[in-house]
Structures are given as structure tokens and as C-alpha cells.
Known about the structure:
By secondary structure, this protein is α/β, with parallel strands linked by helices. The protein has one domain: 3-Layer(aba) Sandwich (Rossmann fold). It has helices at residues 15-29, 61-72, 89-96, 121-133, 162-183, and strands at 2-7, 33-38, 75-81, 107-114, 137-138, 143-146, 150-152, 157-159. The radius of gyration is 16 Å and the shape is globular.
Amino acid sequence: MKILLLCGSVAKRSHTHALLRFIEELLKKQKVETVFWDLHEKPLIIAIPEYHHDPSETPNEIVRQFVSVVDSADGIILGSPLYHGSYSGVLKNALDCLSLDGFRNKVVGLVSNGSGPRSSYGAVEHLRLVVRALRGYATQIHIHTNNSDYDESEKEFVLQSGDIQKRCEDLVHELLLLVAALKGKKTIQG
């Protein structure tokens, strides 16, 4: 089983990045193969609409790599900071690089971070609509954090909220159960 974690933050130090890395460690404990695509480190060109029907034909090598990673993933977790009441433009552009059914038969978990309590909920709700439009299945459990859920060091943020850590475990469990069900497997570890 392979899960793609797509980080829609371009900040050098990012709460969203820290949240996705925490979830990635939970997946690895379940012996799940992960791919972490950070749009800060590996940005995509602006989507070219002529390739929506077959994005693997785009002339841009990084977009072709991205499409291949999405296609090969059994499940996906999208992460975004809250920007102006929704998810980030860089994440929107990445999703626009996919085909019109780019998430067909894929389970997608949704996570976001906003600066204050409850403020990041809009990003997750807007992403839920996009997942459905791309023919994917959004998990029922989603995570939205705020800055007070993290400790800060010079280099990074670290998720410290026990409640959010437990919610991450629940998200991973639901995601893996749904992926296994879609793949026709009867059980998973945990």
C-alpha cells in the first residue's frame, strides 16, 4: 500500500508540513510506503488546461512525475494552510495539473492549519468538494489545527497536542481501512 502526502504550504517553516510529517510517521509504523511531495521544495508549473484529459502527456517533466506519483498512490493526504478562508493556491494549481478523474477510486484524507482556533475548517471543507470533483472519496475524519497545537524550535514546528495526535491516529486508521476495502483486502494491521 502506498500513500501520498501532498503538502500545500510554501512556508520555510510550516505547521502543515509538521502535521503531515507526524501523520507520515504514523503510516510508517503501520508498514505503509509513503511518498511526501512538498510543493515548497518541488513546485509545479501553472496547470496547462490542454492536458487535463491526459496530464501524462504534458511537456513538463515535474508535472509528469507528479501525475505518476498520484496515479500510483492507493491513498492520498492533502495538507494546506488556511489562506483567505480556503486552501492554498499552490495546492489548487497542483490539483489542476491532474486529469478530471485524477482521484478515481482513491481515498483522500484532509488536513489543514490556521492561525487561530477553528479557523482552518474552511480549507478542509473546500478540499472535500475538490476531492469529490476528482472522483475520490474523502475520509469522514479530517484534521484542522491551529498554531497553539505546536511547539516551535528554530528549524521547525512539532505537533504537541495530544488530542490532535489522537485524531491523526484515527485519520490514519480510517484511511487505511478504506484503502484496504477499495483494494479488496480483508484486514490491515492495527
